[in-house]
Amino acid sequence: MIAIVIDISQWIFLLYVVGLNLGYMALNVSAMFSASKYMETIEFRKFIGMYAGFMPPVSILVPAYNEEMTIETTVRSLMQLDYPEMEVVVINDGSKDKTIDKLIEIFELYPLEQAFRTRLTTNTVRTVYCSPIHANLRVVDKENGGKADALNAGINISQYPLFCCIDADSVLERDALKRVVMPFVEDPLTVASGGTVRVANGCQVRDGFLLNVKLPSNLMALVQIVEYLRAFLFGRLGWMPLNALLVISGAFGVFHKETVIAAGAYRRNTIGEDMELVVRLHKYLRSIGRPYRITFVPDPVCWTEVPEDFKTLRSQRIRWQQGLAESLAANLELLFNRRGGAVGWFAFPFMLFFEGVGPVIEVCGYIIVALGFLFDYVPLQGMLALLILSISLSVTVSVVALLLEELTFHVYSGFKNIGILFIVAILENFGYRQITAVWRVIGLFRWATGRKATWGNMVRKGTWTNT
Amino acid sequence: MELLESIDKLLLTQLLGVTDRTLKIVVYLNFLLIALTLIVLVFVVVFRVRSIIRRRQQIEFNKVWQPVLEECMYELPEMLPTLATRDLMNFLLLWNGMQENIKGEVRDNLNFVARWLKIDGRIKNRLLKRGNLSERLLAVNTAGHMRAMGLWGELEDLVMENEGQLLVMIAAKALTRMNDKRAASIIIPMIAVRREWPLPAVAGIIKEIHPESVAEAIGDVIVRVPESMVPRLTRFLRFATVKEALAIAMDLMEKYDSPDVIASCLNVIGDMDCGEHLALIRSFVAHDSWVVRLQAVCALGKIGTMDDVTVVIGLLADREWWVRHRAARSLMALPSVDTERLERILEGQTDKYAIEALKQAMVEKMIVGNVIAS
Question: Does ipTM exceed 0.85?
Answer without folding.
Answer: no
